[in-house]
Design goal:
A hairpin with a 4-residue loop joins strand 27 and strand 28 (663-669). The model is unreliable at 286-322 (pLDDT under 50). The chain is of the alpha/beta class and 817 residues long. It has a seven-stranded mixed sheet, sandwiched between helices. A seven-stranded parallel sheet has the order 6-7-5-8-9-4-10, with helices on both faces.
Length: 817
């Protein structure tokens, strides 16, 4: 079938509309008009040779927002640039720095001073490498006497040494800055004392505990640079986000008045077709047993790694009618990606998990082999867990056009400069509108037309967006992170004190209104109080930097094959009990392994039959530590609470299952310890009178609360910058402290991430969306689109959808008992 002779984009749209005409897959389609570019004159201070180099590369004019941002930086101000994907934010950032360096290089010998330095921070190594290539090429083209180098975990030792001793532009990430640069800052004196510019790219990526950690890393970096006499400007780059100045100020630790806001995008844009798509129906009426495999694949799309989703599908016993069974989002995305690539489009498909990326690539390759055999070998997966050389080869193949499509986790969502992409497929809602526009903005870069498809997963949030596609175009979310979290603040204060004594006039930089946190750390023996300030207590014989895991996943468990000693993959220790217990099935790049041995750092794996999977049972208990706020709901018999809690979780046993259909083989007990951590939660309690009016009894109340908990967790990401995997929950008909029916939704990391608090503050909108989703779901007794959860520790039992719908209506104020 030769479709490339006609306009590939129009042919692809015709194909999609043809499919949509035959079933209910095409939910929504709209075309966003193109946008004419707005240009501004070159600033007079831009170095002539630099401008000439840019003009030779085709940049003969600058967009208006580029000039605005570059001018603010040149004038010595911090700046937040929140414009669209492909709008040239990086060039706007580098223009004033490179011009400053060129001027310094031309100064007469009597006025010579060290060339200015710059530090660029990226959230991913892929983006860092892309930016290093771009800035290095620009430096060479402009014949500037600057050297650029990368310094991260993948860099060879010689490269790190070069970055430290000779490079003017150091491209790195927050992890390296925290673990290597700041602890050894005396060795980085050359960089720090001349530091003129710090770039924090992809601000919207940093949220929750990770965002709070990165904010303190940036503040500590700025603090040491100032100690060495530098006054660096900070450029923060982001996809469109709500309240960008306030968010940037929290990262830098300064007043919003000190930051220039550049958000009026002057770049041109092609026409973009936005499509909301449901996967194909493959069975009109199913039971939970029939749905097990598809549900498991769908659950992987929501963000859990390595087919851990299979651990949460319903038990085979007691099958219930659930409505239509659809393909998983990853499976549907694979078929769509193969067809779009076959129509001549270059495709980038995004998934929410590593395994889903692998599955999608396999399906796309099969589709191409079947219908477009000449393209069969030109589709690949890209995800975390690959070796550095594997990632680099895929990046180069995509950039050079040797690949017609790639399936990826969030790594390629970010600002990597890959031109010529025609279509994006987001398999499942990516968590926030900022991420959605970042992903969809990869299609039609450089002003070309593009197609962006959202394939809705089988979960409450995606189902809600399929019912209300206008929500996709609502205002983007605020960046949510909590720098007051003592589990984040305290360790960073210790690190700062170890790097240089903390002085009284530096308290504001860390958001401190008084010395209480420092006094507590002093009483605990971590700090020493001296007349000049607070010092790290070296007698502790520990390194404070080692106590912090920036990305919040804790230490990594390595999965190793005993025959070769090769590391096949890694798993966050926080998920190790569920994903890598002895007997667990682990899938990596399509290969299936069984865990045969385990300690705290290493799991031994051996090849296993490809059809085996496992599913754990996990128990959760919550103890309320401190109630910070209480408010009545629309019905006063509902009380809302926010506060500190202790969560205890324990994996007790697992089921061994066989594909297809997850046929039950056997159940096996585990002897694993309970894991406890303190965090923050929002919870609500119900008065006895309300329970009676809702006609709930001891048989239906637990299932009602459980279903309401699942649906609430599924919809909180609509209002907060999180996804359901950032959250946990518990429902109980009689909590020992509240002495009432209670539902908890808590932040999934120690100390809290700010999401529960945000849900408490926006509970009205949160509950309205949750109530509407459950009410409008056409299933009978519950399904993954409303009240089933991919992470339920009790395998989605018990659930009572009707009771949950009535209760949620009361919580939302749209119904009365």
């Amino acid at each position: 079938m030769d479709t490339t002779r006609e306009d590939p984009r129009q042919a692809a749209l015709a194909y999609l509309n043809g499919l949509g005409a035959n079933d209910d897959r095409l939910v929504y389609e709209t075309t966003l008009p193109g946008r004419a570019p707005r240009f501004a004159a070159w600033p007079h201070w831009v170095d002539a040779e630099l401008r000439g180099a840019l003009e030779r590369r085709g940049t003969d004019r600058l967009w208006s927002h580029q000039v605005e941002a570059a001018t603010a930086l040149h004038d010595g101000r911090h700046v937040i640039v929140s414009t669209g994907t492909g709008s040239g934010k990086s060039l706007a950032t580098w223009l004033p720095y490179l011009s400053e360096a060129a001027e310094a290089a031309k100064a007469p010998a009597s006025l010579a001073r060290p060339l200015p330095t710059a530090c660029y921070l990226a959230p991913t190594k892929a983006l860092a490498r892309d930016q290093l290539a771009a800035i290095s090429a620009l430096i060479d083209d402009a014949s500037l006497p600057l050297l650029a180098a990368t310094a991260d975990g993948d860099a060879e030792r010689d490269m790190k040494t070069f970055a430290r001793t000779r490079a003017h532009v150091v491209v790195t990430n927050p992890d390296f800055v925290h673990h290597a640069l700041l602890p050894s800052h005396e060795h980085w004196r050359r960089l720090l004392r001349s530091l003129s510019l710090v770039v924090l790219d992809e601000m919207h990526y940093y949220r929750g505990v990770f965002g709070a950690h990165v904010a303190f890393v940036l503040r500590r970096l700025l603090r040491l640079a100032r100690r060495f006499g530098a006054q660096p400007r900070v450029a923060i780059l982001s996809a469109t986000t709500a309240n960008p100045v306030e968010a940037a100020a929290r990262f830098i630790g300064c007043s919003p008045r000190d930051i220039a806001n550049v958000s009026d995008d002057g770049s041109g844009a092609g026409e973009r077709t936005i499509i909301v798509w449901r996967p194909q129906v493959i069975n009109e009426t199913i039971t939970d047993v029939d749905a097990a495999l598809t549900s498991a694949d769908s659950l992987a799309d929501t963000g859990n790694d390595e087919w851990e989703s299979l651990l949460a599908t319903p038990h085979a016993a007691g099958a219930r009618a659930m409505g239509k069974q659809r393909r998983s989002a990853a499976s549907e995305g694979g078929h769509l990606a193969g067809e779009l690539a076959g129509h001549g489009l270059r495709v980038l498909a995004f998934t929410r998990s590593r395994q889903a990326a692998e599955s999608l690539a396999d399906i796309a390759k099969d589709e191409l082999a079947r219908r477009y055999p000449e393209l069969a070998g030109r589709f690949a997966a890209y995800r975390g867990g690959y070796l550095p050389e594997e990632r680099r080869e895929i990046e180069a193949s995509l950039r050079e056009g040797r690949l017609v499509g790639v399936s990826s986790t969030s790594a390629l969502e970010l600002g990597i400069d890959v031109s010529g992409l025609d279509a994006t497929i987001s398999c499942g809602w990516p968590g926030t509108r900022a991420s959605w526009w970042q992903q969809s903005g990869r299609a039609g870069r450089a002003g070309a037309d593009g197609i962006s498809i959202l394939v809705c997963s089988d979960n409450p949030l995606d189902a809600y967006l399929a019912d209300h596609p206008d929500e996709i175009f609502s205002e983007v979310e605020s960046s949510v992170f909590d720098t007051s979290n003592p589990y984040v603040l305290g360790p960073h204060l210790c690190c700062a004190a170890a790097e240089a004594p903390l002085l009284p006039d530096e308290l504001a930089l860390f958001g401190l209104r008084d010395t209480v946190p420092l006094d507590i750390l002093t009483s605990q023996g971590f700090l020493r109080r001296r007349k000049a300030g607070w010092y790290w207590n070296i007698a502790t014989e520990t390194r404070p930097w080692d106590a912090i895991d920036l990305r919040g996943g804790g230490s990594q468990l390595q999965l190793v094959t005993p025959a070769t000693g090769a590391i096949v993959g890694t798993i966050d220790s926080a998920n190790a009990d569920a994903q890598a217990h002895v007997g667990a099935i682990y899938v990596h790049q399509g290969r299936v392994y069984r865990v045969t041995g385990r300690d705290e750092d290493v799991a031994i794996i051996e090849p296993a039959p490809p059809k085996l999977r496992t599913r754990v049972t996990q128990h959760t208990r919550i103890r309320i530590l401190d109630e910070r706020a209480t408010r009545p709901g629309p019905d006063p018999r509902v009380l809302w609470h926010f506060g500190d809690v202790e969560v205890e979780r324990q994996v007790s046993d697992y089921d061994l299952l066989r594909l297809p259909g997850l046929e039950f083989i056997g159940n096996y007990q585990l002897d694993l310890p309970a894991r406890r951590f303190a965090t923050r939660a929002v919870w609500w309690t119900l008065a006895d009178g309300l329970v009676e009016e809702l006609m709930l009894n001891e048989d239906t109340l637990p299932g009602t609360l459980h279903a309401a908990e699942h649906a609430s967790i599924g919809l909180l990401p609509l209002v907060a910058t999180c996804d359901r995997w950032d959250l946990g929950g518990l429902s109980t008909a009689d909590h020992p402290q509240t002495l009432a029916p209670t539902v908890f939704v808590y932040d999934g990391l120690p100390g809290g991430a700010g999401f529960a608090e945000y849900g408490y503050a926006h509970r009205g909108r949160w509950m309205r969306a949750t109530a509407l989703r459950v009410e409008r779901c056409p299933c009978d007794g519950g399904c993954p689109s409303c009240v089933h959860s991919p992470k339920c520790g009790t395998n989605n039992e018990p659930l009572y959808k009707k009771g949950a719908a009535d209760l949620l209506a009361v919580l939302a104020g749209i119904g009365r008992a």
